[in-house]
Amino acid sequence: MAGPSLHPCKRIKAPPESPTQLQSTARLFGAMDRKAVGPSPTFARAHLLMAFLTIGKRGTIGRHALAEETGLGEGSIRTVLKRLREAGLADSAASGCRLTRRGQEAYSAISTVLSPTTLIEGTRLTMGSSQVAISIRGGAARVRSGIEQRDSAIGVGAAGATTYIVRGSRFTIPGGSDDCERDFPGKAWGALRKKLRPGDGDAIIVCGADGEGTASLGAFSAALSLL
Questions:
Q1: What is the pLDDT of residue 76?
Q2: Would you list the domain boundaries of the chain?
Q3: Which of 87, 88, 93, 215 is the most exposed place for a label (fewest CB within 10 A)?
Q4: Ramachandran class of 108: left when φ > 0, alpha when ψ lies in -120 to 50, beta otherwise
């Protein structure tokens, strides 16, 4: 029997991105992919995305606090902020780092697609003692086997990651179960519904690691493969 409806209300479509939002988002991905001059940076694309979203969520945040939240050293944070500044997406002042108007446009566009990470306790949905989940709106269409997301997460230090696709009212696994709640009953599914409020066609990535910070980084890295 199928599980309960994933969303009690009719799904509301996200407004289409404006040209300025698309341009600002392209700037963000350009900052991620730009090759650095000199030694290779000690951060991944996921670090830059995490730092960018953290600044957007906080409004203003000091460099030291940003380093702690992203797990990056001070040197890497300086490089991340330099890339964001050069792309016109962030600036720094005595009060801390904040997004520019272009940065806020990109943050708004990404936030309509990518959820914040959320801690899921007491789950066996993937490997790792600490597990977080993230949803990608409409991401199911870009999922192939789920291996790409797992490998992206492992590449930044996570223990593993499992990708679930929402079909109607069910959580499914590519090439596997077509109703995970039926086949693998547990409380985690209710937590995913409550915290992420997924809808038909969304992709859900559950990433695990020894700590929540690394699990979140792995989730962002995996999500990047679907953006």
A1: 84
A2: 19-111, 118-224
A3: 93
A4: alpha
Q: pLDDT tens digits for 131-159?
A: 999 999 999 999 999 999 999 999 999 99
- The CATH T-level fold of domain 19-111 is Arc Repressor Mutant, subunit A (1.10.10)
Its pTM surpasses 0.90? no
Rounded to whole angstroms, the Cα distance separating 58 from 81 reads 15
Residue 212 exposed, middle or buried by CB count within 10 Å (0-12, 13-18, 19+): middle
pLDDT of residue 19: 64
Q: Strands, E, within the chain: which ranges?
A: 90-93, 96-99, 118-119, 130-136, 160-167, 170-172, 203-209
Q: Do residues 131 and 123 touch, judged by C-beta distance below 8 A?
A: yes
Fold: same for 19-111 and 118-224? no
Is the C-alpha dihedral spanning 123, 129, 135, 136 positive or negative?
negative
User: Which contacts qualify for 34-40: CB closer than 8 Å, 24 or more apart?
Assistant: 34/83, 36/79
Q: Can you identify the CATH homologous superfamily of domain 118-224?
A: GAD-like domain (3.30.1360.30)
CA distance 139 to 224: 11
**Per-position b or e across 86-122, b if 16+ CB within 10 A of its CB:** ebebbebeeebbbbbebbbbbbbbbeebbbebbebee
Residue 15 has which token pair? Answer: 């407004």
